[in-house]
Amino acid sequence: MPNLLEVKDLKTYFYTYEGVVKAVDGVSYELEEGETLGLVGESGCGKSVSALSVMRLIPDPPGRIVNGEIQFEDEDILKIDMDDMRRIRGGKIAMVFQEPMTSLNPVLTVEKQLAETLELHKGMTKAEARREGEDLLARVGIPDPDKRIKQYPHQFSGGMRQRVMIAMALSCNPKLIIADEPTTALDVTIQAQILELMKSLTTEFGVALIVITHNLGVVARYADRMNIMYAGRIIERGSAREIYANPRHPYTVGLLRSVPRLDLPRRTRLDPIEGQPPDLVNLPVGCSFRARCRWAIDKCALEAPELAPIGEGHLSACWRADELGDLIKELVEAEAREYGTDIEPTPAPEPVAPQDNQVGEDG
Predict the structure, then answer these.
(1) Which segment, 186-195, 211-220, 224-233, 354-363, is predicted with the most confidence on average?
(2) Is 175 within 8 Å of 207 (Cβ atoms)?
């Protein structure tokens, strides 16, 4: 299947009084048509900035895309003028932002905000845009769309506002949707509904999806492939199943072990990643994760490892990637002795097909 999106050596820097912040520092990845890609990492690792770079929404100043290519449908969107980019943005690439209350205009009705996109990109009349808007609201699970479309964002719950954002993203039948932590401000049950909705709709329409998140459970269920980011770079890449079953970077191992697990004894403690992320203005020499890594060696302080293949479709930027499986096994055995139980690594979960979207008012 051909690649819909190819990002090559993308570098996005922010020029501040304190120095140059290398928010995205040489990121490369591909996305196939209809594929779901998970972009995972803790806050400040460059996930959102890489997505905003694809949309060309980096504020200048202080930000600037200083290097790289972003090939979308075989066209480098970094080289086209802003008029052409506006036709792509919303028409072919849509984005669901992190906080719907700040993304929606509080003084405009939902109808006005939906209709603007339809009138601009599809040339609809106001009446046609209204009918299409009602259909979109119904499709994303909002009851009484003919009434709700006349309301303002503050009259919707958080989950309903996010559904409106999804409706806006789908309104022009885009080829790609970028969802930037779409469930951050929602409670757990509504998160599940929103994610099921997005997955079912992207499957129905054949839309490619990039899900930006720090929630590994989201990626396990919904993503086909994963990119793990740290300090502005991708440090591990592969299929979701392979990375869960066979992580090959200490940071990925740390993320997995920081999540509570119901299959372990209650007295088992979480194993958080110690320390703080590095200063992106003054990145350390060598591996950026070295100061927080339990398995660091002398070489890690001298030279930064490149992203290299360690299996079919699986890449890691770690000097000890090949032996990491044995190191994890030793760690698990030590924990088993400490807790007096048999603790085995959990295999990758079987993919779960999204259920029929039975959702209602979550207000």
Answers:
(1) 224-233
(2) yes
Cα–Cα distance for residue pair 359/77, rounded to 1 Å: 37
Q: By C-alpha distance, which of 190, 251, 186 is closest to 216?
A: 251
Model confidence pLDDT, tens digit, residues 227-258: 999 999 999 999 988 998 899 999 999 888 88
- Longest Cα separation, the chain: 70
Question: How confident is the prediction for the chain on average, in pLDDT?
Answer: 85
Q: What is the DSSP string of 173-238?
A: --SEEEEESTTTTS-HHHHHHHHHHHHHHHHHHT-EEEEEES-HHHHHHH-SEEEEEETTEEEEEE
Length of the chain: 363
Nearest Cα residue to 34 out of 172, 223, 175 = 175
Task: Please give the pLDDT value at position 353.
Answer: 43
Q: Any idea which residue has 């190819």 for tokens? A: 6
Q: Three-state DSSP class for 300?
A: helix
- Joined together, the tokens standing for residue 334 give 């030590």
